[in-house]
Design brief:
This protein has helices at 2-7, 19-31, 42-49, 69-77, 93-101, 114-129, 171-181, 190-198, 206-219; strands at residues 11-15, 35-39, 56-59, 62-63, 66-67, 84-88, 106-109, 140-141, 146-148, 151-154, 159-162, 165-167, 230-233, 237-240. It folds into two domains: 2-129, Rossmann fold (3-Layer(aba) Sandwich); 140-240, Winged helix-like DNA-binding domain superfamily/Winged helix DNA-binding domain (Arc Repressor Mutant, subunit A, Orthogonal Bundle), CATH 1.10.10.10. It is built from nine helices and 14 strands. The radius of gyration is 18 Å and the shape is globular. α7 crosses α8 (190-198). InterPro entries: CheY-like_superfamily (IPR011006), OmpR/PhoB-type_DNA-bd (IPR001867), Sig_transdc_resp-reg_C-effctor (IPR016032), Sig_transdc_resp-reg_receiver (IPR001789), WalR-like (IPR039420), WH-like_DNA-bd_sf (IPR036388). This protein is a positive regulator for the phosphate regulon. Transcription of this operon is positively regulated by PhoB and PhoR when phosphate is limited. Pfam families: Response_reg, Trans_reg_C.
Length: 244
């Protein structure tokens, strides 16, 4: 376990105004080997982001000067794809959907299990660092890329391009795309995707899969083509379909 924590050691920004909860989260993140900076306001978070780079942002929503999601919105508008984990008491389905649509990578509601929180952090950082995996013979490949006509995926560089145009993806979006593209035409259910990409078997997170799929489709839409690389197989799940 110590070796795993060392391999995934990260610089984390915690945005939480509850002092007791912040101390608990700080303790467990540091136990995992991470460096943690804590602030309690949206404006402080945005200011410190201009001063240094972080590997993960853990944020509350109900902050003294606004909704923590505003931080995520700002980062995504600036094309900053630092992973974001929301830790909040807002537990309605719509709140979770709002968070996922804003571009967060995961969403945990209070009260929460410390073990689950640690696992979610590890999973996000693992997705960020994940570069292994070999495409099948259905794709034209070399050691570093997966080529599907207009679409090129380069796992080792964590890059995606569509018709020679760079496509910026979050760590979760990239991991999902690479997983689906590794077996073109193979249909995966939401439960299978949750297990392989999010490392969870909890069916309550089906909306997470749907939101991530929708964001990927938007980012992979070619202005002169109606082709969808990620297609829905109704009643079954999703598949990656190379450009014909």
């Amino acid at each position: 376990m110590e070796q795993q924590a060392t391999n995934l050691m990260a610089n984390i920004l915690l945005v939480e105004d509850d002092d007791d909860l912040a101390e608990l989260v700080l303790m467990h993140l540091k136990f995992q080997g991470h460096k943690v900076t804590r602030v309690a306001r949206c404006d402080d978070a945005l200011t410190i982001y201009q001063q240094q780079a972080f590997d993960l942002l853990v944020l509350d929503r109900g902050l003294p000067d606004g909704d923590g999601l505003d931080i995520c919105h700002h980062l995504r508008q600036e094309q900053n794809w630092t992973p974001v984990l929301v830790l909040t008491a807002r537990d309605s389905e719509m709140d979770k959907v709002d968070g996922l649509e804003a571009g967060v990578d995961d969403y945990i509601t209070k009260p929460f299990s410390v073990l689950e929180f640690q696992a979610r952090v590890r999973n996000i950082l693992r997705r960020v660092n994940q570069v292994s995996g070999s495409p099948t013979a259905d794709a034209e490949t070399n050691e570093t890329s997966m080529n599907f006509g207009l679409l090129k995926i380069t796992p080792e560089l964590h890059q995606v391009s569509l018709d020679d145009r760079d496509v910026t993806l979050t760590a979760t979006e990239f991991t999902l795309l690479k997983f689906l593209a590794s077996r073109p035409g193979r249909v995966y259910s939401k439960d299978e995707l949750l297990g392989h990409v999010w490392n969870t078997e909890h069916s309550g997170y089906h909306h997470t899969v749907c939101s991530t799929i929708n964001r990927l489709r938007t980012k992979l839409k070619h202005p002169s083509s109606e082709h969808r690389f990620i297609q829905t197989v109704w009643g079954v799940g999703y598949k990656f379909q190379p450009y014909q």
